[in-house]
Batch of 3 targets.
Target 1
Amino acid sequence: MRLRPLLFSALAAALALAVPGKAAGDVAFGYLLNRSGNANYDYLETIFPNSFASSLASQYMMTVLRPASVDERFRKRGMELKKLYSVDELAQASGIAGADYFITGSFLPLPGNRIEIRLSVCGRKTMEVFSFTSTERMEAEIFRLVDRVTRVLAAYLRGDGLYKARAVPAGTRIAFITNVSGEELNRFYIPFLEQGFPVLCAQNNDIEALTASGHFAAFRYVTTKTGSLEPCGDARNVRFYHGPWNNSRFDERVKETRDFFREFDLAYAGTKEKALERMARGFGGSADVLMIVGFSRDRRASWVRAVDMKDRSLLLMLSIQQPDSLFDDPVAAIAGMIAADLPTAPGGAPAR
Amino acid sequence: MLKTKALLFTTCALALAVSLACAGKKAVRYGKQKIGPGSAVVVVVDCPTNIQNVVLAKFMEKDYRVKAFNASDLYAMRDVYDIRDFKKIAQESSLNDQGSPFNIQKAHDNLYKLTIYNYEMQKAETLGEMKERYNVRYLILFELNDWERVSWGRAIDLASYELVWLENYPTRYSDTIESIIDHFITSLSGM
């Protein structure tokens, strides 16, 4: 009888320990293409992915597949693991690789002993591609460089799509676009103002947020020069059928459609860059950060995308789930969590 | 004994329900600078004209320089969100061609996002114009609501485009339009 309380405590402790952390899934690596054209760097095409894989496996306990094993899987299907994949091809490649995530990319040695590394992470189930560019110093010991890039990868893979380029100090002027309005928007702004972030009037000069439609989720995808999250589609795959039925009207329609896809898909990054440039000018250059925050219908989950308005680079991608307390206002609680996170330096992946 | 337990349970459940329901109806206020009498303001309030007049009269009574401005003068979303742009993305696609719907959706989403960016940019330009041409310093927004709901206000300093005052005020049973506006004026003027 006396052992019963002990038994219950042990059971509770065992249950608590057994609750899993966020499992990241397994990761397959392709090669990293050498974009320099200098064959002296070709050896890094395999060294880099192998090093990233080893680092993820040893430091973050993730299951990884190195390029050699992935290539074997491709060969079994009579194919070859390519060095470069377009966003569209990544979906198929990650299906063949068979892991939850497929990572590939390229690198370019730069003057001043620096190197630019571009990586694309394709989720096999989500059909989404997260790409980021990192410019690092070519260290005498390559391990430090590998560690820094791996930290970004691990944060994304294990932190529910987390990406943070740098800390955002208090005093940074933020322009918000969000799908809450009215009194809710006031409750959303308060934590940022209280933490010392001036809020610009990007959205607070409306009575109603006209972005309050289900379509707002489109902003979850983000495109910048240094990082993007996008679905695996590629406009180049849209087919235009031509034949004897062609006439001038049909040709005109095809041209219009082609122009449409060029502007809003293939050249979207450039089109958006121009829009943001004009927006920055509209605010008289006073906007430091454009932050887009999307709330779920019940307000207990949200995602954040932030772009640095000075150089239009990706600053932050973050997902926040339901706050702990049932009694808190979820909008204010989530805003508080975002505001508290902004000044912190980008760390490693959350603990397992 | 059972009765007491039931009573206790009901009280707890009610208290929980009330606290959950009230989480979003709390009064909140933030003021970065005082907007005192004499300031040049534009007041936008979403209500019929006769009530708008009551609101404007209250500001004029307190010696604010109220600029004539109608909310509908602000650039409206429907002016930018041109549905004609979307007709070009109507596509026929076969079920076998899995790529196409994806591509069409992606381009459609991009167009939607650009429209929103464009809208915000146009608004910023309109506010700039409001400041330069009409010499307005503050834009003040109100939504007035009945008892059991929350009335709210926000003020934007057009010199810096910054939000300088905001308040959520849970409307009381005894409140009238005048008393709510009096409350807001006292709050934003820091008096």
Target 2
Amino acid sequence: MRCLWLILLFIALPGHAAEDVLTLDAITQKAYIRLQNADKILSGETSQAQWLRLCQGLGQNLLVNNSSPGFLAEYICQRDIQEPETAEDVPWRITFTARPKFIDIDIQFQAKGRWIPVQTFSFHLDGEFLEDLQKASVLRFLSRLIVESLPTGWVYTHTAVGKNLELIMHPDMPLLPEELLIYELNYMPAKNLWMPKLKARLGRKQQFRNLEQGRAESFEWKRTYSPLREGERYWIQNSKGRNQRQAEYEKKINGETQGFSLLNLLDRMLFESFSSNYAGLRYGHSFVQGESVITETSLLSLLLEMRSGPLAGLRLYYDLTPRAEKEHNGLVEFFEMSRTSLGWSWEFTPPDAWDGLISRIDVQPKIGLLSFQSELAVQDSVGEYQLTAFEARRVLNLNVELGLEKESLWLRNRLWASYSSAKASIVKSNGVSVTSARIGVDAYIDLMKERNWDLKALAFGYAERLSLERDPKSIAAADSDLAIRQFGFNLLYVGGGITVSW
Amino acid sequence: MVRLLFILALLGLMRQARADDIADPMTWWNQLSESVWQQPTLLRNITIRTGNATKARRWDKTMADFSGLGFVQYVPIEDMDFMRRLNPKEDLSELPNDLLLDPDLLQMVLVDRGTKMSVLSNTSKHYKSLGSWPLSAQDRKNSSTMLTWMSRNLGYDAVVLDARDGLILAGLLKNTSELGQGLLVKQSAKRWVIKESNTRGEALLQMLKTNGSLAVFEVLLAKGKTLEVEKGSKILLGQNNNWMKIMQPDAASKTKTTSPEP
């Protein structure tokens, strides 16, 4: 297909319209490196010193020198909230943003006063990034990860004469890519297009040798399209393109700092949604079949899920089944119920092999208060129906919930199941014990994404087997000669709602 | 005639003595300024395209060692397509295809049309058809036969890259170590193709040194009193009757060569 358009292109004899282009020389590139929300993160002298060391370490590694592929002639570490006064003249900006569960590194290019996103790395780190990233080896890997991701690549200074050339690299670094392209580079702001002008292709030769100043990697000139000037600087990049060896650098950095992992777009969204707080309102209707009053009930529910901040893990749900009435055998039955649950979630990342099915596993112990009021038509010993009340107020119950979550770009599904047993003595409050087994599914669908909050539609469904058992003593004390000792019923609600996440 | 042959023999002897002082073609090449590449008919980089992806890959394979055979380089898809690998895919989807090529890289595109090969030249970033020539199965056999096909149809063997102090640096279509004679074709700097009818000689050249696909020539005889060697001028090699084409009664004078500024 690609060839087809090429041939069509050539046959069509196109002309290249004169477009405004910027030339990126390989001599004067500058960047400033900044920390987003620095005022919050750099609260003490220690953190400020750590940031400065991290920034300077990275900056040094990104400079053009003999043993590390760099693309900068100069860098500035931003220490204040304001951008440096000279920011207008600086073509590159590298921004660290600490988010609740991951770090972003955004690399942007300034063209005609506008900052253009060029590359973003998001990574998760078990430790403290200001501390962990400033290790010399980590900074070397990180800087190489950055330069191999840029359209510029890094700077090559032409010194070679003859068939081969040697590039001196730090001995700890992975070997350079097998084939490299040397080029000049233009940028067309109107089309956001990086336009290389190829000069030559280099191919790796088998051998390399260790010198005092580093490891000399040997390359041969495979093709030279136009002459390279002695002493002049060009851009050089992996011939396969940008970002071809992320996994290799991820592994290297992971070896130096605990729990480092790069996040792709999906992972990032996953972490973002995992770290988002949710508040929502939902409504569902009973889908239970039969003649019972329960078939007429509906569910109104409020939910609050905290996934970041000091209360990360907190879950609060309030479910209300408003009073529903139904005539049954000439008697008017009614049913209403409310349940408040407070829980705490522990999240686990499943093994990589499960990635296609499950993005996250969570376990939530919950404590709940259930209030219940009903009058149901019950046959007495002579076969006549009588209204019999069953009432319980603020019955304490404990349950545990297991959730399996799967995230995609615009949808989050959660399959969950919970169980609470009447056996634990604590659940026998107010003379009533509760046994509940529930299974359900929630789906969150993106509706609107704003800078600091998202709006999602929520679809849900759950089935529950709920059994309430009254203490025999409380039955004996009851006035009625017809009492219900144990009351079990099935609930099935399906509905939808809306959530706001931030 | 005897006098002319005597002069030629004398110049040959002098050449031998001077050869050691001649700059290596590669050294000269490395010193060339960018301006040489602005010569509109300087053929350095070509590619072959076809409407079929499999055939295109086959051409890339066939031409894999083409660039080592002479001055002209073959640009495979992997290099021509580098712009696609530098830009995010989503940013490219809306762009016109002609933007997605390195506009300065290719000087000539050959389009495989089965029994014929069409040739397009790229001058000032506009592709122009130079014509179509028959291409047999033997021609498309390997990079060497393709080079022979190109040389035959383009009608020249070397192109002038630079000229100074009576010497000419040329890029050879086919590498050689044989130090033969050549004919500088008159008014050929602006031509992509040299036809038999265009091969009027301007100067007789003697190759002094070669290095791969680069050669340094010396002007043995020129037609006029002054010889301005234009960059991009074409040279014919190995034709015994070359010198006959410029043998005019008033032409037997050695002339200092100069190269006009671009």
Target 3
Amino acid sequence: MKRRVLNFALVALVSGIAGAFAADPLPSAESVLDRYVQVTGGKQAYAKRKAEIAHSTVEFASLGIKGTMIRYAAEPDKYYTSMDIEGLGKVEMGVNGQVAWENSALLGPRIKTGIERAEAIREGTMNPTANWRKLYPKVENQGIEMVDGEECYKVVMTPAEGQPMVGYYQKKSGLQVKLTSVATTQMGEIPVELIASEYKDFGGILEPAKMTQKTGPQEFSITLDSVEVNPAIPSARFDLPADVRKLAEKAPAQ
Amino acid sequence: MLSRCLILLAAAASAFGQARYQDAQHQLDLDSFEKVWTTVRDKHWQTKPGGLDWQAIHNEYRPRVENSTNPAEARAAIQEMLGRLGQSHFAIIPAAIYSVVDDEEGGPGVTGIDLRILDGQAIVTSVDPGSPADKSGVRPGWQVLRSGGKELKSIIDQARSNPAIHELQLTRAVAARLTGPIGGTVEAAFLDRAGKTIDLNLSLTQPRGTLSAFGNLPAQRVWFENKKLESTAYIRFNMFLDLPRVMAGFQQAIEGCKSCDGLIVDLRGNPGGIGGMAMGMAGFLVDKPNQRLGTMYMRDTTLNFVVNPRPEVFAGAVAVLVDGLSASTSEIFAGGLKDLGRARVFGTHTAAAALPSAFERLPNGDGFQYALANYISQGGQPLEGLGVTPDVEVPLTRAALLDGHDSVIDAALGWIRRQKTP
């Protein structure tokens, strides 16, 4: 709360300064996003990344719950994530290029449809940072806002299908430090706020080692521990689990 | 002369002391008012609680508490303020009454007795096989008269005289009087089938179940049982926790009884737990996609409790058993399946405590209950405060228990049998 009040005061102050001095013209959204690609490693670094396995830890601090997460991803748009959360068991999700799915000890198998599927497929795109032009047909720089005491460009990225994402990119470093959106989930539309920090080099690309995500009433953090770059991932890794396959066979074509 | 001075001094001191006490109590009542008001302002699921101008409510009621001449007046003003919300589960429990349910010796050790308050009496409803109570010959239907030298009837009558004390709290408070440290004993007096008083010194042992931790919650003992009653599957578990084990047990029970006539899910005494488990279990029983058990409304988010049909869904008749101790996730499950027309609910009215409602002690010692969200079951009714009304109201009776019958299970089995009759 204190931080919000402080930020509000700073925003007001900065607005006043910006108005008084009529500072630099606002860069285009395209240049802000391209700069983010550049400062995190550059197009060539991303082009070299064909596949990865990311190992993370997850923590719901207020609930006292921890877990581990492993994410396999491969070009062009395949991923499989498995989380093991204390007291909740295993949660798996993935995209095999066509079918977006989820399976958990809690809710069982499920195939995502509509906007939720589109969002999952977007999420499954390898190197989404470098591929922003493919993912977001419309981007707009809406100005400067303060995030954690730093000036940031507020860029609204609108996909062909689904809700826009709002990225906040530090004016000074070019790094994305915050992302907000409204996630379309089976349980409804849930506001999401993600704070990215502690950027580190993982195999030639700078990635936030810590992400704190507020999803509706829940807040949790993801710490990226390590990334295996271009490992050999058997293609079967992205096959649908048996229970999901049964549902896919029953479900109408997407 | 000296003694007269002392008397006057003593009288003055006494009067002064009384005034100071009143001031201190008055301040505690004012602090309690502020605590209640700010809690509703900050935690109610509506930004305008109850659609009211909550600041105006403060301006209206604060002077009432300031001008109150005794704690009862202050409490009445706070209670009236909460009443303006027009919503259940916002209540003040006077410290004196609160202490009736709070004053429990308690401990982790149990005798193996489960009980309910039936017609104002504490009646044994089940006895865990092999437990100290079982070994001592305690049987369902016996009345618990005394525990630790205290008459339970007077405690029950006192608590029942206050509508703020719900069946759930009362039963827990009475049951807690049969608990204590593991390895210890508790003296209890029972009235048996023949009307004879039986005094027993019962050993206290580990409660049934496997210890299961979930985040910051204290570790709980969770048990799951599943058996066949004739050609009907019967599932019972004591809470919606230990997710991996309980969900797997539920799945195995369903898959192991594909050809059963029916399924009974017994949620009596189940206080709830992880809300999502209601959705997960319903997925084994509902074959249509995009069905909901209900919707939870919080200040910033609306969550639909959606059911994912599993690849293989149980097609037979489903009966859900509930009672006044079935709360939270139990109510979400029972109410949602009832509203979807997928289950018939048997038993007695549920606890009407579907939400994360919290109890706090106020600075003046009173108890304060408040709800944090609103949950509307698929049929359009809020569960909080209303609970689930069974399709078939069947109370447990002492007479049936003494005869070895569970009238609620009997009613559910009878209904399931009739479903297969052409």
